TrEMBL record:
This is SPFH domain-containing protein. The keyword Transmembrane applies. Residues 56-220 form the Band domain. GO terms for cellular component: membrane. It is a single-pass membrane protein. It comes from Tahibacter soli. The lineage of its organism: Bacteria, Pseudomonadati, Pseudomonadota, Gammaproteobacteria, Lysobacterales. The chain crosses the membrane at residues 12-30, 42-59. It is found in: Membrane. Its main location: membrane. CDD domains: SPFH_like_u2.
Length: 288
């Protein structure tokens, strides 16, 4: 069922006309009572009752809201025009917000693609774009948005690892833009039937579950230490290579292979060591 526009009239002119008609009905009632003619006041009373019934056709539409119209249970259309409006008094009217809304899901505990338990939550920004589908396709579209968003978040979280050891493969922690786009598409697919458009979806909370958080923190720290050591060793080797090359080119000293090996060993110890080194003066030779 798709939304269609229901015709309505501007309420301001009709309101003034109705006020004038009420005044006329009161005059008829008073005039009939004074004349004491048989059934004199009845015409005024009948007109007053008719006008009271017609008054039920007035309703207000606030900015970015709409009214869904039903006639004896049948959908007849939606009014989106703002202000005071008038329509068939028999129509039942249901108010639907077209404003952009957002909510934050609860923290869900799921297993990521590696099987590690994680905690994840998301913020979803959404709005109703089809009032007929929102009202008639689902029982409670607001509750439907919340439940389906959390279901989509659970499913999305199982498709990615929390952290990737391979820099090229996406993960929840390192590829936020890609993960958020996937989450939005996943939620939109579920909410399309309810006439809802997902404006934005993004992860608001991401952490390892409490029972493995400490172990995973140590794992991350170890990985960071290994990466830092690798960079240090790489830089130290480059510096040693540059030193040997400069000594050879400038002819400062001629070193045999054994002396080169000793020099390389000493430089690597100095450059890669965590603490400052204490120099030791060798008064002999490498062979004695």
């Amino acid at each position: 069922m798709n939304e269609r526009i229901s015709r309505s009239l501007s309420g301001i002119p009709l309101l003034f006309a109705l006020i004038a008609a009420y005044a006329f009905a009161i005059w008829l009632f008073i005039d009939g009572a004074r004349s004491r003619a048989p059934g004199g006041p009845l015409l005024g009373i009948a007109l007053f009752v008719l006008l009271a019934f017609l008054s039920k056709g007035f309703f207000q539409v606030q900015p970015n809201r709409a009214k869904v119209m039903q006639l004896f249970g049948r959908y007849v259309g939606t009014v989106r025009e703002e202000g005071l409006r008038w329509t068939n008094p028999f129509y039942a009217k249901r108010d639907v917000s077209l404003r952009v809304r957002n909510f934050e899901s609860s923290k869900l505990k799921v297993n990521d693609n590696d099987g590690n338990p994680i905690e994840i939550a998301a913020v979803v920004v959404w709005q109703v774009v089809d009032t007929a589908e929102a009202v008639f396709q689902v029982d409670d579209y607001e509750n439907f948005v919340h439940i389906q968003s959390e279901a989509a978040l659970r499913q999305m979280a199982t498709r990615y690892p929390y952290d990737s050891h391979d820099t090229d493969s996406p993960s929840l922690r390192s590829h936020g833009k890609e993960v958020n786009a996937h989450l939005r598409d996943e939620i939109q697919e579920r909410l399309a039937r309810a006439g809802v458009d997902v404006v934005e979806a993004r992860i608001s909370h991401l952490a390892y579950a409490q029972e493995i958080a400490q172990a995973m923190l140590q794992r991350q720290q170890a990985g960071a230490i290994i990466a830092a050591r690798s960079r240090i060793v790489e830089g130290a080797v480059s510096m040693v290579e540059m030193a040997l090359d400069q000594l050879s080119k400038r002819g400062v000293v001629t070193l045999d292979e054994e002396r080169k090996a000793a020099m390389v060993s000493n430089l690597l110890v100095v450059l890669c060591g965590e603490r400052s080194t204490q120099p030791v003066v060798n008064t002999g030779t490498l062979h004695h």
